[in-house]
UniProtKB/TrEMBL annotation, chain A:
It comes from the Bacteria. Residues 27-364 form the Leucine-binding protein domain. Keywords: Amino-acid transport, Signal, Transport. Pfam families: Peripla_BP_6. InterPro entries: BCAA_transport (IPR051010), Leu-bd (IPR028081), Peripla_BP_I (IPR028082). Belongs to the leucine-binding protein family. Residues 1-22 form the signal peptide. The lineage of its organism: Bacteria, Pseudomonadati, Pseudomonadota, Alphaproteobacteria, Rhodospirillales. This is ABC transporter substrate-binding protein. It comes from Azospirillum oleiclasticum.
Automatic annotation (TrEMBL), chain B:
The chain crosses the membrane at residues 33-51, 58-76, 96-117, 124-145, 170-190, 220-245, 257-282, 303-324. Pfam families: BPD_transp_2 (PF02653). It is found in: Cell membrane. It is a multi-pass membrane protein. It comes from Azospirillum oleiclasticum. This is Branched-chain amino acid ABC transporter permease. PANTHER family: ABC TRANSPORTER ATP-BINDING PROTEIN, HIGH-AFFINITY BRANCHED-CHAIN AMINO ACID TRANSPORT SYSTEM PERMEASE. The keyword NADP does not apply.
TrEMBL record, chain C:
Keywords: Amino-acid transport, Cell membrane, Membrane, Transmembrane, Transmembrane helix, Transport. This is Branched-chain amino acid ABC transporter permease. It is found in: Cell membrane. It is a multi-pass membrane protein. Its main location: membrane. It holds the Pfam family BPD_transp_2. Belongs to the binding-protein-dependent transport system permease family. LivHM subfamily. The lineage of its organism: Bacteria, Pseudomonadati, Pseudomonadota, Alphaproteobacteria, Rhodospirillales.
């Protein structure tokens, strides 16, 4: 490095160091989420949902002028940890939110807990952080992964299916998914198959399904994997012959936009649906559509709710951010107008106790394929791990 | 003083002074960024030993970094659960864990090297990739160690009876010390008879064989040494990020390491260090600069990085170090 | 497994194989003739899929959209060859890897800016939406069509290479580049033609994959890695090797996924077998490649 480049580097450092702002009258939020790569759709929806709420609240959360620092975690855990350090030590954010993936949340948690910085997860809800590793600085405003699968498990059980074929990607969230389903589904299993993460072509597995002749199929395939599977399930002639079920992640707006009619009629579960009949939700869906020219996904609704939660909690503390215990208590009891309607509150492990709904994939009046609420699977449902959590 | 020597001194000074300047600015974050650069520099230097000096283009070098990191991760899991591993108590002593990481990576490199070195050229690139992919899927399937989720570490390895490594600045200087030591050792190695045979084989393998050198054995030795250093870098990476996961072994990480080596200047020892610093600084600051120009633009920063890479390869043929150091001796 | 299931899995393996062949043929030709490693080959696959989806929106006719997309992808290939890659023919392989890696980043981000981060929608034409009855086997029509087109293209390619003057030059170029240059052939034109042909074939693969797979950013890299596996197994530069490698990889991958989990269940408890079988199936083709290269370092059908 020559002297000239050294000076340039030093001035670049100084430029980015910036003044260390005090917390007086302002709020700085770190938005670490996936903005590039195959998982970007989910992260962008969370970000856009969060920003829409911020806009609805006039740019302030809890009466504090709010600045959101965005960063792309590239869906890599170590990058997420690096960004977390940067957010905490350099940008001096008051809160961190935005994370999509469970493994990234798990990787970031030690850093945030050591720095005593609250982590409001708008999506990632791993069982570890719900149970024995629950943490006073972690709140999940969306769901614990398993609860969504449990809802479908119960529905399939009630419908009287006896021979269900189960499929998921070969990673812990996939195994948790099928475990959650089987917590409530007690019938027979025609096959349990774990496929490679990121697999594109399911021809071989679909042929095995056909040969096994199950009376229903349950799959957990988020993102691009879901699109591939649903299209190929339809093309293999299985749709219409064998009922397909899945969690909301496998049949949400991000996937439906790409598979179209192939998913029609599938029952799935989520804590929210775009057709939910509340003033808050109608405003959210209409404004999101107007602003981004697409229907919001459940991820967008969770980003929106995360902002509402932060707003309500900080309002309750009167804008004070330094008293961590008071802020934690405020998060825990925060009342906000969630787009998922009534019935949301935090359990002792800082995960939601809430209703989980059954949805069906339908074609809307304007021809878009979307979800419609068809029933309630669980009322005031808590996850199965809260009992292992030592927090009161 | 010659220009390369002056540049090296400046680099060393920057390395030594960074924590001081960061503390003075009240920005401890840059110590972490610096640590990350040093760790990747170490990994890139190890790749350059086989790539730049030995002409072996390994597209699976990140696998050895990952193996080293997993040694730390596996021991952490056993230590925190108080379960023995292979009948022994899991240790958190850095003086044992880090050399062990290097040793395990070296051990893994022996069979991989033996098979891979039967090939040259593009098949060699692909067979090293194949082995890395196998290890990647193996780690993804290790449910006891987090599988795809990996392992989040709650603390660093320790020195006996001392919590010093927990301090970021101490860890930075330890990493810097290791990098400098490895660079000095590598400098001696490439100038030794061993290094000359290796370089000779890169230029004309048949001639070296005709001269009676067991070239494949030399290349295997270099491959194993490089893997050991990469394993050590992996142990440091695990300690720097407090995370271990199969993502460290992904083929795109091997690609990143190649980019660092070529960007910095292959076949030199300072080059990979410069390349690692350049790539990580670009990754850190280009999105922010683009966001300054127009909020939201930063997420598209790779549309800039792509053509920049292409132009660098096209015009800075000897890499950044070649440009810094002037004409090659 | 009964015969019907075995037949279906064999068809699946073949179909995957011809898809890989379409990708591998272009990649191996470009390597054999221009000595260029083009990582951005997967980008042409992605471009083909996206353009088909876009043109379906314009023409509302799948076949027309596919043809237009393939032609345009070939033109994109030509443009890339002219502007970016021409300077790299005589460069080190490593430089080529890096430069074309840069191109991947560029194309991915460009696609994301134009079409957004969310995967987009592309359905098969109505005629191919259902299944076809093959002697009692219900097989997806679209996959059968892919298989048919793939075989037809392979035959055309063979005719082109074995029976035409251009083909003769291609063959000569793959074995002895310097000789072709010495013959006074317009090498630049030949290179451009071959590159566009390769890009067009990759675009065709992408266009046909679109209705079966998710059309999304990054789809090119996943198949690119497999394509490299194919051409290395087959022997770099050899179209015959690419065909053999593609079919081998397609079959091993499909049959591995179909049988390994069941095989592991014979001697492991179900939970462990499901995980281990899945992981083993993912590794199968890499093990295949390592085996082939360990025994035949230059692949099955080395060129020249």
């Amino acid at each position: 490095m020559t002297a000239r480049t050294l000076i340039a580097a030093a001035s670049a450092l100084a430029l980015f160091a910036g003044p260390a702002l005090g917390a007086d009258g302002s709020l700085k939020i770190g938005m670490i989420t996936t903005l590039s790569g195959p998982g970007a759709g989910l992260g962008i929806d969370i970000r856009d949902g969060f920003q829409l709420a911020l806009q609805h609240l006039g740019g302030s959360l809890g009466g504090l002028k709010t600045e959101v620092v965005e960063a792309d975690d590239q869906q890599k855990p170590d990058v997420a940890v690096g960004l977390t350090n940067r957010m905490v030590e350099r940008d001096r954010v008051d809160l961190v939110t935005g994370v999509v993936w469970s493994n990234l949340a798990l990787a970031m948690m030690p850093t945030l807990a050591n720095a005593k910085t609250f982590f409001i997860s708008p999506n990632a809800g791993p069982s570890q952080l719900a149970g024995a590793q629950c943490n006073p600085y972690f709140f999940n405003v969306a769901w614990q992964n398993d609860t969504i699968h449990e809802a479908v498990g119960q529905h399939v059980q009630e419908r009287g299916f006896k021979k269900v074929y189960l499929m998921a990607p070969n990673y812990p969230a996939g195994k948790d998914a099928l475990a959650g389903f089987r917590r409530y589904y007690k019938g027979g299993v025609a096959g349990e198959v774990y496929t490679q993460v990121g697999q594109l072509d399911y021809a071989a597995e679909l042929a095995q399904i056909k040969a096994a002749q199950p009376d229903a199929v349950y799959v957990f395939y988020p993102g691009g994997m879901g699109i591939n599977f649903i299209k190929q399930f339809d093309q293999a002639g299985l749709k219409g012959n064998v009922p397909l079920f899945g969690p909301g992640f496998s049949f949400d707006q991000d996937i439906l936009a790409a598979v179209g009619d192939a998913a029609l009629g599938v029952r799935n579960s989520a804590q929210w649906s775009p057709d939910m009949d509340s003033a808050a939700n109608k405003r959210f869906v209409a404004d999101f559509k107007a602003k981004h020219n697409r229907l919001p996904s459940m991820y967008a609704s969770q980003g929106y709710d995360a902002a509402l939660l932060i707003d309500a909690a900080i309002k309750a503390t009167g804008g004070k951010l330094d008293d961590k215990d008071a802020l934690r208590a405020a998060f825990k009891t925060a009342k906000f107008d969630s787009v998922r309607g009534e019935g949301f509150r935090f359990n002792n492990n800082h995960y939601p106790i809430q209703n989980v709904y059954l949805r069906e994939v339908v074609k809307g009046a304007d021809g878009t394929v979307t979800n419609k609420t068809v029933g309630t699977a669980f009322t005031n449902h808590a996850d199965a791990f809260a009992k292992d959590c030592a927090m009161k | 003083m010659t220009r390369p020597r002056f540049a090296l001194l400046v680099m060393l000074a920057v390395g030594l002074l960074l924590p001081v300047v960061a503390a003075w600015m009240g920005e401890p974050f840059y110590v972490r960024l610096g640590t990350r650069i040093l760790v990747f520099a170490l990994a890139a230097v190890s790749l350059d030993l086989i790539l730049g000096y030995g002409g072996m283009v390994s597209f699976g070098h990140a696998a050895f970094v990952g193996v080293g990191a997993y040694v730390v991760g596996v021991l952490f899991v056993h230590a925190s659960e108080y379960t023995p591993i292979l009948g022994l108590t899991a240790t958190q002593n850095a003086l044992i864990v880090w050399p062990l990481a290097a040793a395990v990576a070296a051990l893994a490199a022996v069979p991989i090297g033996l098979i891979s070195l039967r090939t040259t050229g593009v098949p060699f690139i692909m067979i090293t990739l194949a082995f890395a992919q196998m290890l990647f899927y193996l780690m993804t399937g290790l449910k006891a160690y987090g599988g795809d989720d990996g392992v989040a570490l709650w603390n660093r390895n320790e020195l006996p009876d001392s919590p010093a490594l927990a301090d970021n600045t101490v860890f930075y200087y330890v990493t810097l010390g290791i990098l400098v030591a490895v660079l000095v050792a590598a400098h001696r190695m490439v100038r030794s008879r061993f290094g000359r045979v290796l370089r000779g084989a890169k230029d004309n393998e048949r001639r070296m064989r005709a001269l009676g050198f067991p070239v494949t054995r030399y290349k295997l030795a270099a491959f194993v040494i490089a893997a050991a250093i990469a394993g050590l870098a992996g142990a440091l990476l695990a300690n720097a990020t407090l995370f271990v996961g199969p993502q460290y072994l992904h083929w795109s990480r091997s690609g990143d390491l190649i980019v660092m080596v070529v960007l910095g200047g292959m076949g030199t020892l300072a080059g990979p260090v410069v390349g690692a610093a350049a790539l990580l600084l670009l990754e850190e600051f280009v999105p922010e600069l683009m966001n300054l120009a127009k909020p939201g633009l930063g997420e598209h920063w790779k549309i800039v990085l792509g053509p920049v890479l292409l132009l660098l390869v096209l015009y800075a043929r000897r890499g950044l170090w070649g440009w810094i150091a002037g004409s090659r001796r | 497994m009964d015969t019907l299931l075995i037949a279906e899995q064999a068809l699946n393996g073949l179909q995957f194989g011809v898809m890989l062949f379409l990708m591998a043929a272009g990649l191996t030709l470009v390597f054999g003739i221009m000595d260029l490693i083009n990582l951005a080959h997967g980008s042409f696959y992605m471009v083909g899929a996206y353009l088909t989806a876009a043109f379906v929106g314009v023409f509302d006719h799948f076949l027309l959209a596919l043809l237009a997309a393939v032609a345009l992808t070939a033109l994109v290939g030509l443009a890339v060859e002219w502007t970016a890659l021409r300077s790299f023919y005589r460069r080190d392989h490593l430089d080529q890897v890096l430069a074309t890696f840069g191109l991947i980043l560029f194309f991915n981000e460009l696609a994301r800016i134009i079409w957004g981060p969310v995967p987009i929608f592309l359905n098969p034409p109505a005629a191919l939406a259902g299944t076809v009855n093959l002697f009692g086997l219900q097989y997806p029509a679209i996959r059968l069509a892919i298989l048919g087109v793939g075989v037809a293209v392979a035959l055309l390619l063979w005719l082109l290479i074995a029976r035409t003057r251009v083909g003769m030059l291609i063959r000569a170029g793959a074995t002895n580049r310097e000789m072709v240059m010495a013959l006074g052939v317009d090498v630049r034109l030949l290179f451009s033609l071959v590159f566009a042909l390769g890009a067009g074939l990759a675009g065709l693969a992408g266009a046909m994959a679109g209705p079966v797979l998710a059309v999304q950013v990054g789809m090119g890299e996943q198949i690119l890695i497999l394509t490299f596996v194919v051409i290395v197994i087959g022997g770099i530069g050899s179209v015959r090797g690419a065909l053999a490698g593609a079919l081998l990889v397609g079959m091993v991958d499909t049959l591995g996924r179909a049988t390994l989990p069941a095989l592991f269940r014979l001697f492991l408890d179900p939970a462990a077998a499901n995980g281990a079988g899945g992981a083993a199936a993912s590794m199968a083709i890499y093990v295949l490649m390592a085996l082939v290269l360990a025994i035949r370092p230059r692949g099955l059908f080395p060129a020249g």
